[in-house]
């Protein structure tokens, strides 16, 4: 059996995994990223990155690659499908100063992060099968891959998504179904869509929520979310043509024509359906998020529903905070000392618990309120209470500074 030794192994080459590897590189620590797929995956087509994500991307040194490509959103227009009434909601505290969220192509974000890493950092077609500690103690972690490779590492970071193998090994509870599901896609208008890039359109109705965000002059990212029950043989996880037909003919046939037109223009390869899963916030608060040098980040730690658009943003925060704690240890010891890794990992976990749990809670409650319906007290709760008082508080929470990475002498940074 082949044995290789690494300082840090990151499982998963998604946003959390690549960002973690970039953060570690910035502080002089080389990581090996294991990805079970044969290339970078961009399921979901696009995502909205709020101000806290751009703070993290700036700390990682990649924000400049993206800000010139995507404009910040300044306003959202939320239309009640039942009444036709549209509300205007500001998305920036200081309009015109670039503080609103930006919607970006997921693939472009992944490539921007991957470009920061040395060659051979990412090992594709590498599936994790099991984890164990060396018999001498938890200072060295043994990582088994499906091809028979054995890797010894001082740190293992599970960034392997909602169904994380590393999270299960730590003993974290499995994510639960929120009772909601979502369809996402990317629409392309070769002639141009003619909409303002800084304006977001949203539509709400009883049990349904939808919207689209411009990425540039040609591309629009759209989403449809519902809590409608689906039959056991619904088939929504399969054929994208079937998914689009169901959205257009069954779920949003009474939505404004401009939304239907966006859905019809979708590139089939970008269309996906998925149930919306989350981890109970109390499991994040009291669950075992680390063991020795093993921990988790991104969806592996805090899967959440998408209503606050914080899944990818929180993953970027995780990367910077973990990089900061490990970087400070690296600077102190002029290297990564296995016996002291535990303290750095614990510091990271302690810093992220409450932040992650609050985002999981806010996202779930935001979705519950927005899908509450258009009749009676639930409509009053949504329009008069949630949008006026609660949503602005959640909005304030996305203006968060995850800190900066420690400065490491260039001679200590490995390329």
From TrEMBL:
A Pfam family hit: FAD_binding_3
GO molecular function: FAD binding; monooxygenase activity
Domain FAD-binding: 7-361
Domain of life: Eukaryota
InterPro entries assigned: FAD-bd, FAD/NAD-bd_sf, MOase
Keywords, ordered alphabetically: Monooxygenase, Oxidoreductase
Annotated family: Belongs to the 3-hydroxybenzoate 6-hydroxylase family.
Name of protein: FAD-binding domain
Keyword Transmembrane: no
Species name: Dillenia turbinata
